[in-house]
């Protein structure tokens, strides 16, 4: 072993006096200088340095353990606080989500839906983050405790991760049910609003249609009317009866809507029922008045049925005949473009076929005019004043004769145009054949010269 005390004598630290070694009575300064030399000797001792390093390592480990413990304690406290806050929020939120008290108006339900959307967009996302952070903190804490050979962390009762997950699952179920309830309730209220608006609309339309109908049905205008007027009144009444029958479905729809509003507990059902009852009562009165007027009109109808039948027959036959003449005039004036004899011959054949139908058409025209003349004869013989026109059609005999004359004028013009075009096409065909014949002669000669 090295004698560090002997080796230290060869070094002098600080001032020394001449009488230092002889009498042993050196000054205090010399003693202190010697003590410093001993401390330096200890610092140079490897064993002491090793012990010092061990002590420092142990101290560092202790500090690290203390730091880890403090961090773990901090994580435990954070977990407990986060768990408490999150569970408290879940407990407060679930009753709100489980509230199923419906509102009367769709605006109030839409406000609840808007609040729920705010909850989904604003309030819930931070809580989702807190839940995730809570699980991360719990797993991190358990890992640190396991690495430190410490017992696993056991949260307070009711604050386990499983408790939080159960509460969160309950929250999700309540949230899902709440959203479904909100949407169903809004649809129900929308259905109610739609039905109520539909009821009001149909009721208004029906009331507008019935306005003045009772006065019309009570009017005794048929007592002083002419026969033609009575006939028109009968037709008008028949049309009204058809319209009345068509409105039967509307009245039934109104009653059905009112019934459905009652079943769905509509808040204004009283006014709906009152209005519906008024409509039904008025409908019964209209039915009774319609039947009475029908009987009165039928009693006054005694003459001129033949005239009415003739007018109707005239209208039925005049309308298609008038359409045929208009179509014929269009065809006779139609422009045509042909390139071959076959095409023009087809047009001529169709035109000839059309001309063959003219005698039958003329007979139909005379029959139609005869119907009109017969109606005039019956009216004159019975001193009946007819209205100026047929009530069933606007096609008069003058119109029929005028169009028939126009057809008669257009037929020869069409004949001339077709024959002229036929001559043109025959000339073209002759030229084409002449050209083909010459080409057949010249063609081989040209081919021979080219070879």
UniProtKB/TrEMBL annotation:
Coiled coil: 230-264
Cited InterPro entries: Spectrin/alpha-actinin, Spectrin_repeat
Alphabetized UniProt keyword annotations: Actin-binding, Coiled coil, Repeat
A cellular component term, taken from the record's GO annotations: cytoplasm
Pfam families assigned to the protein according to its UniProt record, in alphabetical order: Spectrin (PF00435)
Keyword Repeat: yes
Renumbered residue ranges of the record's region Disordered: 1-31
GO molecular function: actin binding
The keyword Repeat belongs to this UniProt entry's keyword annotation: yes
Chain segments annotated as transmembrane: none
Top-level taxon in the UniProt lineage: Eukaryota
Protein's name according to its UniProt entry: ACTN4 isoform 3
Organism: Pongo abelii
